[in-house]
Fold each of these.
Amino acid sequence: MYNLKKLAFLSVVFITTACATNIHRNDTDADPYENINRKIFAFNDNVYENVFFPIAKGYRKVTTPFIRERVNSFIANIDEPISAVNHLLQLEPLAALKNITRIAINSTLGLAGTFDVAQGWGLPPEETTFNQTMASWCVADGPYVVLPFLGGRNIRGTVGMAVDAVADPVFWATYHDANISAKIQYPYAALKYTAKAENYMDLYNDFKKNSVDFYATMRSAYLQSQKQLKCRFAPEETTASYDFDFDEEWEE
Amino acid sequence: MKKNMLLLVATFLMSFTFNANAQVNAEKAEDFIKSTTAKGVEEIINANVSDAEKDKRFYDLLNGALDMDFIGQFVLGRNWRTATPTQRADFIKVYRDLNIKTWSKRFNEFKGKNFVFKGTSPSTSKGQVFVDTEVPMDQGAPAKVLWRVREKGNDYKIVDIVIEGVSLAQASRSEYTSFIKNNPGGLDALIKDLTDRLNKL
């Protein structure tokens, strides 16, 4: 329990720091630790290429697309309560209700979540994260940091990821018994991250192959995705985040 | 009274002309994306022709649909202004060929899928509009793909593709600017790097 308290405390510190930082105008401004970030990025790339992706390829070899879809559905169903809670925190009760209905349908008729029956019934997945919850309450993004193994995110995204990880139902369900915890948590985490790596591998390789500066491409894609998140207290924006002026002079 | 009526008519006409100038014909822009994607799927991806023929058809289709001069100039950012005419021409040429080849490969993996058209959304830039589409995925929510179209007279060209809110033109600009900044060879090194990549494809 001590560790959880420590994590909660650290989160508050991080959020306060993040609040003090303004939204950044360009990628370089958002990335004050670029030198060290690039080094960690190169390390991560090595880990992905030499550890994660070979495992993902092995997984792809021994499974069929049908089986992988069942595994992805199963994991998404276990993660869905996190979206439900975050939707509530974002004051989106209808979306939360959709999540709960989907969990009820998919966990039963969908055979423990392995089939997304609810989607066929007009209830498509609506995923959300604690990062999006914080953004909706106007917590600022903070600088871009690349973490070993986990990749690049702004501070808010990093805190959000940590909170979602702690909120993981498998973590809570097995928390009280160290014995069960080791038997269920580790194999589940291994399956989850293998499936994740299998999902992202092709896109990652495509970006890597086609970028002259892979680091800058990934950073731009991430920062752009964050610019779309809306803060409820800000005035309604009339311009979409991706609608820039081609003629405008940009600071780079 | 007569004067007032005249003023009203004049205002109406003026506002109409203003709107007509400012607004792009969204329907035509959408039709352009519909026909471009349909051609890509029916006449290339699903067509029973050789790979060489597919490459040729992709080149013609994308070269006609994408405004490469416009995008190329944008992605170089401030480096475009300082570039020599030769550098500009060399860059646009390799940027065009590399992009067309890369996109041909990506679209080729698109077999069995289709774009679902979701209408259009406005752009604050004059003469431009976003054509909104969705691509159903094997699993989970569909991917949102927006095509930014620029109207030039009766001609329509794609100037950006926005996937899940990420503009590829912005990502390229960030990538190239960063490369030039971190590379002593500058723009020439970029052109060389892109040429090497093109030759490897």
Amino acid sequence: MHETILTANNLTKKYNGMTALDNVNITVYKGDIFGLIGRNGAGKTTLLKILSGLSSSTSGEYSVFSKTGDDLRKQRRRIGCLIEEPAFFRNMTAKQNLRYYCIQKGITDLSQIDRVLETIALTDTGKKKFKEFSMGMKQRLGIAFAMLDNPDLVILDEPINGIDPIAVSELRDTFFRLNREKEVTLMISSHILSELYAIANRFLIIDKGKVIKDITKDELDAECSLCTVLRTDDVNRAVTLLEDKLGITEYQVSDREEVKITQTGIDPIRITKTLVENGVGVGAIFESGLSLEDYFKKLISSN
Amino acid sequence: MLNMAKADLYRLVRSKGTYICLAVMFVLYASAIFTDSFAVISAGYDPSRYFDETFKTDMRMIGCNANYYFLMIFPVSIILLTDFSNGTIKNTLSSVTTKTKYYVFKFIAVQIVSIFYFFLGNTAYYLVRRLVYGSDKATPAAEVFSVLLWQLPTFIAVISVFVLMAFLIRKPAIFNTIIILVPSVCTITIGIFLEIKKTRGFAERYLVNYDFTNLYQYIAASRSTSFHLMVALISIIIAAAAFIAGIKLFNCTETIKE
């Protein structure tokens, strides 16, 4: 049985009459790398802000490490956070900024600063001040801050924004290492779904403040495996024929020559025959898996 | 809270603002000592309103402590507003403390640093001037420090309002603009009240003497303990009200505004 790290029950947040979060229920288990997916304004950051103590919920409750309220406040040091863009003192270097937070958190072992900077490959910034950092460097320093106190739970909001591909790959390795070697539970929101798919083992898809899917990677892989890709010379006519003649309504036009049919129980031979008989050329028809991006789009459009 | 204090001290000694504030204080007092005058700069008030010839220059200079009104923008900016302008408040609130404790800490920290500047400036001025011009031309130290202590509640009340406003405004540029404009607005308002026949009596009796820019002089010039006590009481009430209102309002608002 998995140890529960975080639970949220009917978490709701309303701003000026608008519902940013609507009865969100989640459970995060120890060792999870929990991916949070949603469009801009879907409620991801609001959820992460509430969980990290930066905002209060209008109703509902949550617990982290089985603690709530004042007890949870005492456990905050076990949670590392990077919410929205990284924020540090502009006129201080990376080391000075981290030293400030070491002092603030009561971390006496200052060698921890070098360790986290090494972990996120930010050791060579020297006297460069935070205001002179590139977007990627700022982002990495934000991740270093989240890891500073050897947390058990790390909450990261868009952590790979603005980071170059090599650094992303290094960060991915870092996340895996933290997760496997130190059993750190990670909660990560990102728009880069391919990257999130490569990291996470569970996914929570949010839209308009509501959870529309809570799914493990294995379940996602199973759900995404059924997809028929149709390559044709006339997509518009092909989809008309699919709908009118074959009654296929669940599909996505992925580009000018490709249609991804997500409806189950279809017959590729019958599709080919129908299209050819009606003068539509078929380049190829084959089974393929949906990407997380396709799956996300499908869920959002059906919501 | 001790760790937060240590961390802010670490940042304070690395901040340019700290040294700019000290430099401005140095220039202000060095000019006053060099010219053996007072009110080298006065915050829009008449620096000799309440003093007659019986008061020595050092006491008149201490009567000009309304100058600290402008200088104390620095501690508020360095200790508090940088957290809002850089967004670093979220780092602290997400891992170290609660909103209430954060407000209490910042309130105390700004007060301590401001009071330190207040006593540092006045003490250094008094001692150096006494050294330069001799004790004959100096007011007895006990009298000077008694006046400084009576001025302290007003000073604390002003800083308390600064902290409240900083938490409400959050943007350094707007905060500075408002703080700089307030004395002028007060002077103009009092001027208008003085011009109107019906309000002149009220303005002369209360507004002029209790306008915070004049109040420091009035405290320094007055020998009335009951007046000092009344000013101290009103100041403590203002400081307490600003403190409570600040906590309530800060707890009602989002840490990171949408």
